[in-house]
Amino acid sequence: MSQYSSLRITLFKHSECSFLEMLDAEGIEHNGLGLYTNNPQASGFVETITALSEAMSWNAIAKIVVAWLDARKSREVIITIEGNTVFHTKGYSIEEVQKVLPKAINMAVIDTKPENET
Questions:
Q1: pLDDT tens string 23-47
Q2: pLDDT score recorded for residue 106
Q3: Which of 56, 86, 105, 106 would be a feasible disulfide site paired with 51, CB 3.0-4.6 Å?
Q4: 4-35+42-111 adopts what CATH topology?
């Protein structure tokens, strides 16, 4: 019996358009997730990537993370894995990110500057 893998991506500040465009360019399907709560929450947009475990494109996602980070210094990707271990992926290689992703429960994607600022 096949199992599903799911990666929750929270997009903060000015990261939403640029990061989702990179997922789209690689043909990685993602879906917006609506969150409803009575408690205060950090602002951000939540997307999920879900696939059969053996079909999840960890390599393509790792390439996107590294390329997206390398494009601007104002960017950060933080991956939280099972056991609440946190990885700040700036400076990681594609291979290093690829090893962490299958264990990820959440990925925070942050760009502190708008696209039109350098």
A1: 999 999 988 865 555 554 556 788 8
A2: 93
A3: 56
A4: Ubiquitin-like (UB roll) (3.10.20)
